[in-house]
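Supplementary Methods S3. Input chains for the assembly prediction are listed below.
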Amino acid sequence: MSLMPADAGTWQQRVEYNPDTRQLHKQSSKNFMAKYALGLDIGGTFTDIVVYDQQGAASYSHKELTTPDAPHLGVVSGIKRLFEGEQLACEDVTRVVHATTLFTNALIERKGAMTGLITTQGFRDTLEMRREHKYELYDLFIELPEPLVPRRLRLEVPERIGPAGAIELPLDEAALLARVRDLVLQGAQSLAVTFLHAYANPQHERQAAQLIAKAFPRLPISISSDVSPQIREYERTSTTVVNAYIKPLAESYLDLLASEIAKLGITAPLYMMLSNGGLTHIAEAKRVPVQLLESGPAAGALAGALFGRRSKINDVLAFDMGGTTAKLAMVQDGAPLIAYQFEASRAKRFAEGSGLPINISTIELIEIGAGGGSIAEIDSLGLLKVGPRSAGAAPGPACYGRGGVHPTVTDANLVLGFLDPATFAGGTMTIDRARAEASIKPLADKSGLSTAELAWGIHSVVNENMAAAARVHVAERGHHASEFALLATGGGGPLHACEVARRLGISKVICPPSAGVASALGLLMAPARVDRVTTLARKLSELDWPAFERAFRAIEHEAHDVISKTITGSKVTVERGADLRFVGQGFELVTTLPRGPYTAKSLAGIRAAFLAEYKRIFQQVPPVGAIEIINIRVALTAPIGRADLKVEGGKGTAAKALKGKRTAWRADRAKFGEMPVYDRYRLPVGSGIKGPAIIEEPSATMMVPAGARARIDRAGNLLVDLAK
Amino acid sequence: MAKSKFNAVTLEMLWTRLISITDEAAAALVRTSFSTVVRESNDFACVLTDEKGLSLAQATDSIPSFIGTVPRTIRHFLKDYPPSALKPGDILITNDIWLGTGHLPDITVAKPIFHNRKLVGFAGSVAHSPDIGGRIRSPDARDVYEEGLQIPVMKAMNGGKIDATLERIIRKNVRVPDQVMGDLYAQFTALTLMEHRVMSLLKEHKLASLAELGREIHTRSEKAMRAAIRAVPNGVYRQTALSDGISEPIKLEMELTVKDDTIEIDFTGTAPQVMRAINVCMAYTIAYTSFGVKAVLAPHIPNNEGVLRPIKIKAPYGSIANSKPPAAGGARALIGHFFPMMVIQALSQALPERVIATVGSPLWCINASGHRPDGSPFASLFFTNGGYGAAHGRDGAQVLSWPSNVSSTPVEMIEQLSPLKVHYRRLRTDSGGAGEFRGGNGQEILFESRAAGPITVAFLAERTRTETAPAGLAGGAAGACGELIINGEPVNPKSQHYIEAGGTVLIRTPAGGGYGSAAKRDKDRSAADRADGYVS
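Predicted structure tokens for the full assembly:
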């Protein structure tokens, strides 16, 4: 988002595509019977406020600068500004949905609570020893993530549970309380408890939690069997500790936000977006806040899925390119893919394996060090490298004239004529082409190319970087990128999308309307969702089927409890899954299972589901018989509200939408040429635009390459067809 | 030299694409292989070479064992099968330890890539097979014949058809034939993926061959490597290391000569090969030795032929660093993992601030087999690691896999999979070498057998003698040496042992060396060490 200047202030935007209909929309917004859904998405730079009018199927949005030290202030002033500007009434809001990067940031900046950890005797170092693996082979000075809890705050108590859940050594209650007292005296403000094999039997952890709560009633406690009851002690401990680390912050912040919103006269329930793209109620969010870490990106991926579906395209790569990073999420059959582990707070940004493992279901997503601020340089091999180093928002690209001297992707795009200084960031800031050229020239001289050729080089290299990351990511999940459409959002997404798509063999690019606030709209389309997991670790052939069914029912019951407190009267869908593997393998494949209830007769169906999924991902099924079931999972979802969005195209002809012509780089001819520039929101539905062409909207620019055709479809999406 | 047709941009994109092709193939191999060694330890490599077998790109995550080995094997293939004997759909194979990577489980395969009917390059891959017959992994084997099946250089696929005789022979010789063949097919899949991607790359960029691109990659990499070497003062740097050996320590000698923009490393003086499976073939010596050079001088240059050109590595034939047939090599890591550390120690004389003190490596491994209380058999293999060396300005990490990259097995998994109870797994207080910057602590793990009867245990374990402890640097103290204790008594780590139910095995892995004089350690750091119990 650094394409948006940090001091650009705030502005409001309606998702109304034809200026002629503006009055009409405004009137409907003040409809007496109005019912609004309110979305609040706090990002690093901006807080997006979006209101969705359920009757008019229209939406209103506003961008407010994020107030990092007291995020609720930006939310409150943003809501006020939008509601006053659009003359909306707070009491007409029927639900509020919130996503935030606050907790992720607290983790990255290590601003969480001083946390203590209690473990089984002999295992306090699990958190620090990790899995002994390096994320980078050649770096002798490799930076490993510092454990969130220093060793002095990790204490042990005598207790032991066996791998099958049997109690081998009772919990030493006196020792437990003495250790907790020690931690509190050392200043611990939050506590995590992880006992060995607690996934198999949570009794000792629960007993410990009760004892501690009684003796230290104000100390927040997180126990591993509650947060992430899954085998593998390091990952479980890491997840539980992160939960404890952000829990005090989550409790105070969410209470404060809820009361501030209530003060505005909004009495509707407040829901939190979870990392997995579902919603939950505040009490659950406060109980296990580690579920909220990726709530912002999850909303973005949901929006990607939504806009794809609106054009009847169900398999998309949602590609969001901002100022410092590009994010990529895979959407299949209209829904974002879910992962069951991710990493937070990486010691080395973009390096997989350098972060803290979190075993919580989340939207599958990769982050690539490629954005408008990515810096270009010539390396020791004489090659042009772009990123991951970024000029960020400050000092920003050289063309901002704020002290940045390194050439960035944005500078290259300006030199190439892809960006218009007059309309950049909605015309709210000036950018200087001469500075951009001056920053690129030294690199051009060094490599014997013209400034324009090198600028095109920067544009191309950053595209290749994004394509390379996407290619491997998609391959790891058993797909080919060419099976997807590319859905571009973010300030830089539409600018780079067609070239990235071409490199991936993708022939269709989708650019949703108002890409800038699409992610906040995603919030309002999300269902309520509760995921639960527990470890079994049994051979499939040796299952006690009644016990197996009971285990599923138990976690379903628990999940149902939470979802019924989130939403009532909505149809709940239950999906069962399991982490399965062939005996002897070191990792599991999460498989969606046939519907229950299960009896011994279900064996064949479960086995077949696993084999089919295995074959899909890995192409071949190893000739081995025995299958193990490590974890079982349930996901309960229930829709909250409906979500149509009426988007109208411009009236008249494409010619009416033509704003003028601009000189820009034509890659097909390797020289500058004149290109027509269109106003996206004046383009009527259906009429085709032949590339090369530039299609602009206030927050983004779409480059349509030579040979491609672009059109606005009935859903309001801009579709580009790259097929030859 | 004629002006290159590539510039900073076109070369960057083509090179990124080549590396991305090998990374994509690596992802496919990991997905399709059955072996946990491949999956959990990245014990494989995917490589692209030009038509002469000179490497162009190697997958980013492959472990150091394979630097340069696949291209070398491909050049051996070319001796038996010149281009005229190759056609599309052929796949060559061998696990010959002297032509390959130094131990039999690593199977190397390569597929010629054709463009306009001309041989333009090879897609190559090596992966650690789930089994290769012979003795179960242990340093006990006396010669290579005890270690399993040897596959000579031959075609596994001929014009797209599997050699049925070879398949039958492999199936007959391994314990898990379906898995072994499954993994081989996974390698074939990765080769075919690389082949297709290269063919479309050539077409897309209108290149007739990879030759010019290869030349450019090699020239630039070589130039960058030479520039990195030139920054090291000329001189002869000698380094000796002692490994535990079998019954007495084995001496390893290295002479590293920096002359302008070249490095020559000579292992003359190193002990002769032994009648156990810890001998190292030249390919493995070259791989791990060049890894040491690269890690210190040029960690960021991608792996290819050009990087290796300025580095000459020699070792006397018949020494433990350049074994001759029929020497066994199954546990070659126990010696080979010393080599990069020796390079680092040697270079520390010239560049003390760009290196680390000695690491508590090689990796340790515990192989346990027997019967569970219910009578069912079990056989389990667990890995664990020592402390990392300190460096100028930073303490060594507590327990980290180096120079390889093998994850530890979770205690909860160990207890689920085998009748072993782990009483503790914790850092070894006071084990890291003292210094201005402290070496990383090793770890200690106490296992108790809960099996039905006696179980058999074998180990990979090194640096268990005082004289082989990981050395400190610049006045820092050595890290503690490793210890292997069964039922309270120290035992010979190179032999198999039998343990009765209720018996215990205590493993203490070696710790990293310290850096600089301990007297200079910052007082706050010392106080923090004591508060955290890293130091008592």
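Chain B touches chain A through 79 residues (CB under 8 Å). Chain B is about 30% helix and 25% strand.
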